User: Fold this.
Amino acid sequence: MIFNVLTVFRELYMSPLKYGIVSKAIKTKKIKINLYSYGDFLKEKERIDDSQYGGDSGMVITYDKASRAIDKIKKNNPETTIVFLSPKGKLLNNKLAIELSKKRNITLVSGRYEGFDQRLIDNYADLELSIGDYILSGGDISALAVIDSVSRMIDGVVGKRESVIKETFQNSLLKNSVYTRPISFKKNRVPKVLSSGNHKKINEFNRSSSLNLTLNRREDLLEKANINIQERDELKKIKVKNNNSNIYLALVHYPIQNKKGEIIKTSLTNLDIQDIARSCKTYGIKKYYITHPVKEQRKLAESVINYWEDSEINRTENTKHDAIKLIEVTKSIKDAIRSIRLIHNKKPKIVATDARIMHNMVNYPELKEIIELEDSPFLILFGTGWGLTKEVLQNADYILKPVGGYDNYNHLSVRSAVAIILDRLFGCKF
Ligand SMILES: C[S@@+](CC[C@H](N)C(=O)[O-])C[C@H]1O[C@@H](n2cnc3c(N)ncnc32)[C@H](O)[C@@H]1O
Assistant:
C-alpha cells in the first residue's frame, strides 16, 4: 500500500513513522510513505494560504497552488484515492479503516489554518475524513492516525492476525480487560479463570467481560454487534437489574386546550387506558396516572381497570394484568405529584410533552442524560385534546421536543406518541 501525504509540515512525520508497527511495515515494504510538501510547489514569494472571501478571519489553503501539488501526486499515482482530512468529513472507524486497507494507493491531503478552499474538495476529493468530533490545528495528526489504523489492517503488518481480529471495535464490541504478570500485586489478583488453563472457560470469561464492558461504557455499539439470543437476554437482564427507574407517566384530561386555545376537560378514551399501560410496562415506567377531575369519568376508568383485572382472560393470561396494575386514577396532576412524593419523599421533576416545536425544548439525548444523572423521580405529562395548557407547560421543569416525521402533518394519537417517546428514551437498541 502506498500512502502519499501532502502537508505544510513534512518534518512532523519523521518521528512518528520511525517507531513501532508502522516503522516495521515500512521496513518490510508492506507500506510505503511518500511525503509531499505544499512548499515544494510554490514559486518564490508565493504562500499556500490566503485570506478568506466574506470577511471572516483565518487563512485558507488556496485552490490554484494546492492543485499544483495534487496534480503532480495524481500524475505519479494515477490510481490513487484522494482523502482530505477535515473535521467535516466522514468519521473514521475500524470498519472504514478495513475498507481503506483494501486500496493500493491513498493520498492524504492535510489542511491547516481555516481549512481548504472548497473548490479543492469539490474537484479532487474521493473522501473527506474526520478522526473525531473535535478540532485539531492541522490534518497531520489525523493523517498519521489514518496511516496507523489502516496499516494495521493490511495482511502481515501486525504479527499475529488474531490480535487484530480480537481488538476493540471488531464486531462492534469493546475488547475484554487484559492482565499480565505478576499474578498478584498489592492484594489484587488476576481473575482465577485466566490462569486455569481451561480455554473454554477463558473464552467464556473474556466474551462476558467484553459484553459487559460494552454494555456499561458504549451501549450504542451493541446495536451493530453480532451477539446471540442468549447473550442478548443476559445483557437485558443486567439492564433490568440495574434499572432503578423513577419514571412516572400521567395522561392529563384537564387542564387541556381545545383548537381555539380555550381550557377544557376531555373525555376518557378506552384505548388509552390499556395501550398506554402496556407501553409503560414495556419500557419500565413505575406508575401510569390517569388524571381526570370528573368523578364519573374516574369511575369509568376504574371500571375498565377492574374489568381487565378480574376478567376470565386475565386468570389464564396475565400479560394485561401486569400492565393494568401500573395504573392509578387521580383527580389532577397535583394528586399524581403528591402520590410520587409519598413514594420518594421528593417532588418529581416534571417533563411536559407537546406536538408543537417551541423555544427551550429539551432534546432526547439531553433528557436521557439528565434522567441518568439526577437523583429525583420524573413525571412525564402527556396531554389529550389539543395539548397541555400554556400554564402547565410553563410550570414544567422541561418541555420535551415533539416526535414526528419531516412532514408538517403531526397529529399522532397520544398513545402512539407515548410509545414512540418511551422508546426513544428507554428503548433497548440491541
Ligand atoms: C483548524 S482546522 C480547520 C477547522 C475549520 N475551521 C472548521 O471548523 O471546520 C485545520 C485543519 O486541521 C485538520 N483537522 C482538524 N480537525 C480535524 C479532525 N477532527 N479530523 C481530521 N482533520 C482535522 C483539517 O485538515 C483542517 O483543514
About this structure: Residues 2-163 form a domain with the Alpha/beta knot fold (CATH 3.40.1280.10). The first helix runs from residue 20 to 27. The two ends are 36 Å apart (CA to CA). The chain has three domains: 2-163, 184-241, 244-426.
